[in-house]
Amino acid sequence: MRALHALDALRTTAAIAERGGEGTFGYGVLAGDRVRLAEESYDEAVHALNRV
Fold first, then answer.
1. The pLDDT value given to residue 1
2. How many alpha carbons lie under 13 Å from residue 45 in its C-beta half-sphere?
3. The dihedral sign for the CA sequence 33, 8, 48, 46
4. 42, 4 in Cβ contact below 8 A?
5. Which SS3 state, helix, strand or coil, does residue 21 take?
6. SS3 for 43?
7. Helices marked H in 1-52 — which ranges?
8. Is 45 exposed, middle or buried (0-12, 13-18, 19+ CB in 10 A)?
9. Is 34 exposed, middle or buried (CB count within 10 Å of its CB: 0-12, 13-18, 19+)?
10. Rounded mean pLDDT, 29-49
11. Coil, strand, or helix at residue 1?
């Protein structure tokens, strides 16, 4: 859940930076990393639940 909140914050920050003329490639990289972490956490939770 924290990863999804961080992703939302990065999107907001990237939009503000873009309007200010700043390149947002780094924000995209960070957001992609957060999405990957969220997916891994979800997969781990599903796997743990399936073992119960």
1. 63
2. 7
3. negative
4. no
5. coil
6. helix
7. 2-19, 25-51
8. exposed
9. buried
10. 83
11. coil
- pTM beyond 0.90: the answer is no
Which residue type sits at 16? I
**Rounded Cα distance, 15 and 22, in Å:** 10
Amino acid identity, position 42: Y
| 13 vs 27, residue with greater confidence | 13
Instruction: Tell me what the mean pLDDT of segment 34-50 comes to.
Output: 85
Interhelix angle 2-19/25-51, rounded to 10 degrees, is 170
Interior CA angle at 48 toward 44 and 50, to 5°? 115
